[in-house]
Amino acid sequence: MLAQRISLLSDSGTAAAREAATLAIAAGRQIVDLAAGEVFIEPPSSVREGAIAAINAGRNRYTDSIGLPPLRKAVAKKVSAETGTDWRADDIVITAGAKQGLLDAVLAVLDPGDEVIIIRPCWPTFPSQVLLAGAKPVFVEARPPTYIPDITRIRAAVTPHTKAIIINSPNNPTGAVYDRTILQAIGDLAINYQFWIVSDECYSSFVFTGGRHESIVTAHPSVRSRTIVVNAFSKELAITGWRLGYFAAPPEIISAAKKLQSHTTSNANVIAQHAILHHLQVGDGSFERVMHQRLSDARSVGLRILSSLHDVIPPRGAGSFFFYLDLSRLVADLPVRSPVGSADDIVRLLLDEADVACVAGAIFGDVNGLRLSFGAPPDLMEVGLRRVVETLNNLKTRQTAA
Ligand code: PLP
After folding, report:
1. Cα gap 268→98, rounded to integer Å
2. How many Å lie between the centroid of ligand 1 and the Cα of residue 331?
3. Are the beta carbons of 296 and 319 closer than 8 angstroms?
């Protein structure tokens, strides 16, 4: 018999969506994959060269559990530049992707019975990790069209058991980018009620409206002593499989992570650590600029296509690389006996009949949502989005005729 904690975990919903697409592709169908949470672009040459050099130099051994000291120093410099506040190597932990950083954070601060506020729709790993730590997720809904949470709703969710809030801006799946006002309000709440902030900023490079990404520690510097800023190179450098992330946090969290990582993964992959160190030393930012431009162009094309949706408000796609559609109006207008009666059904229909893979909002805790990635190769993204628009626009007529 398995431990109870396993039954608390949902299957990875995005993996399930991709599995369905993979099966369809194996059956010989030309599926356009708009389900993936990654950008289809070659990683920078500096990263690849750094990895090859590390292999040839025989960098095969364990590293410090929280990462190579020069890499921690280089990451501290990067975080300092990006947040406008000063961070040193001692403030940084290198992790196996943002996912490990988030797990370190919840394992370091949560006890059974603690509550953690999570803004929903949310990436499903947040509640799963909170449950793994024996704590309780408390959801606060962020509503369309902005998907920016209302601070009064967050305040209403605070109880004497609240130990932390997890925020994620730019957001997966909604693409929302939190502005300074909401970040400061969340910061004030955390200070007043003395809870931790776990800020997942792994899409920080991908903001397309209103300037650059702003971290909560920039918007509200006095939360720094209670904030764990989690980030990764996974999305930024298109190396999701390399598993390299990091977080910046107060000293007690760094010490906790040192223990946690030494007993779990030992250290993040040594070759990836050297590769990123090389990139941070020699990279001139050109890859990051190309990547941003590519996504910004894809977003513009995508928004133009999606603006011809009839019964769905076009998404904003302010950040990350996801368009998130609210299908509630479309679904509500479908005939009662219609075989397609939910966003889940629509996602199935898109795969079965339009050959487009995307992700239904249910896995993000939102039965009305539909997530489409604009990280797909641009020509395919265009084809895929046109098919999505055609399918959604024809849905009512088709269902009424059925
Ligand atoms: N956080 C969010 C919001 C994500 O969407 C993802 C991946 O999809 C991660 C963290 C995981 O990042 P990594 O691959 O660096 O572990």
Report:
1. 11
2. 30
3. no
Peptide bond into 145 cis (omega under 30): yes
Q: What is the DSSP string of 31-81?
A: -EE---SS--SPPPHHHHHHHHHHHHTT--S---TT--HHHHHHHHHHHHH
Ligand 1: lining residues by beta carbon, under 6 Å: 37, 97-99, 123, 168, 172, 200, 202, 232, 234, 240, 245
Mean pLDDT (whole number) for 326-332: 93
Mean pLDDT lowest for which of 21-25, 36-40, 168-172, 293-297?
Answer: 21-25
pLDDT of residue 61: 97
Residue 58 CB contacts under 8 Å (≥ 6 apart), including other chains: none
Q: Whose CA is nearest to atom 12 of ligand 1?
A: 98
User: Can you give the pTM of this predicted structure?
Assistant: 0.95
**Phi and psi of 271, rounded to 5°?**
-65, -45
Distance CA 61, CA 84 (A): 35
- Residue-range domains of the chain with CATH: 4-42+286-395 (3.90.1150.10), 45-282 (3.40.640.10)
SS3 93: strand
